[in-house]
């Protein structure tokens, strides 16, 4: 089985990389872009039967730093 | 006085830190990240700068899970002294030994240059050798030194006089110009600038010497 973890900086935490991408898109003429947030996608190959709680524990302990980041888990 | 300096794969300031400790009179033992115990009788653990585990995932995230890091945390919880510099500061925040986190520099560039620091508190074993408010010059070399903490944490750091150093000209966007902070018991210091790279006139400055000398003075058995 597989799981996909999305890790994003929390709202309110400045994302200078997202801001640089937003600036570049604006400079390229994409005037409709009002904001960009950049995050990470982590794909996990897991043994059958791994639970969402176990993936959440991986997120809490390593994959995300919950001081600055939030995460979402998709099991698939 | 005994110091242990941890080496992770990708550490690059571990030997400089050992030399700075030695010059201040410490017996220094290098410990490898896979070791599970610190040498007995260690007074202070140095967590050095560098790029542990290639900065993969987040700076310091993987080093925070190393065997020796668990021993470092136990040492801190027993009331032992810990000095984390640059990547070492990032590791200390990743473990939760110190609050907050280090984000990508606001200007997105890697910054390597001497920075002016203000000594914000002299009430610690690390900063007791400086004058309150003294301005010193210490080099920084980092890509992720932008200190972040929520408003409550920043207020607590200020109220408890735990901000050790602030930048005189903020190079990286750090909240409150913070360059280094102390733990609640004031025995753990994390800082982004490199005092071990300012310990010899050959370094272009020696303003870091007072930090290591003050430490050796405090930790010397009376």
UniProtKB/TrEMBL annotation, chain A:
It is an enzyme of class 6 (ligase). Pfam families: PurS. Pathway: Purine metabolism; IMP biosynthesis via de novo pathway; 5-amino-1-(5-phospho-D-ribosyl)imidazole from N(2)-formyl-N(1)-(5-phospho-D-ribosyl)glycinamide: step 1/2. One of its GO terms (molecular function) is ATP binding. GO terms for cellular component: cytoplasm. It is found in: Cytoplasm. Keywords: ATP-binding, Cytoplasm, Ligase, Nucleotide-binding, Purine biosynthesis. One of its GO terms (biological process) is 'de novo' IMP biosynthetic process. Its EC number is 6.3.5.3. InterPro entries: PurS, PurS-like_sf. It catalyses: N(2)-formyl-N(1)-(5-phospho-beta-D-ribosyl)glycinamide + L-glutamine + ATP + H2O = 2-formamido-N(1)-(5-O-phospho-beta-D-ribosyl)acetamidine + L-glutamate + ADP + phosphate + H(+). Part of the phosphoribosylformylglycinamidine synthase complex involved in the purines biosynthetic pathway. Catalyzes the ATP-dependent conversion of formylglycinamide ribonucleotide (FGAR) and glutamine to yield formylglycinamidine ribonucleotide (FGAM) and glutamate. The FGAM synthase complex is composed of three subunits. PurQ produces an ammonia molecule by converting glutamine to glutamate. PurL transfers the ammonia molecule to FGAR to form FGAM in an ATP-dependent manner. Belongs to the PurS family. Part of the FGAM synthase complex composed of 1 PurL, 1 PurQ and 2 PurS subunits. This is Phosphoribosylformylglycinamidine synthase subunit PurS.
Automatic annotation (TrEMBL), chain B:
It comes from the Bacteria. The keyword Lipid biosynthesis does not apply. GO terms for molecular function: ATP binding; glutaminase activity; phosphoribosylformylglycinamidine synthase activity. It holds the Pfam family GATase_5. Gene3D superfamilies: 3.40.50.880. The active site is at 86 (nucleophile), 194, 196. InterPro entries: Class_I_gatase-like, PRibForGlyAmidine_synth_PurQ. Its main location: cytoplasm. Its EC number is 6.3.5.3, 3.5.1.2. Coiled coil: none annotated. PANTHER family: PHOSPHORIBOSYLFORMYLGLYCINAMIDINE SYNTHASE SUBUNIT PURQ (PTHR47552). Part of the FGAM synthase complex composed of 1 PurL, 1 PurQ and 2 PurS subunits. NCBIfam families: FGAM_synth_I (TIGR01737), PRK03619.1 (NF002957). This is Phosphoribosylformylglycinamidine synthase subunit PurQ. It comes from Pseudodonghicola xiamenensis. The lineage of its organism: Bacteria, Pseudomonadati, Pseudomonadota, Alphaproteobacteria, Rhodobacterales. The gene is purQ.
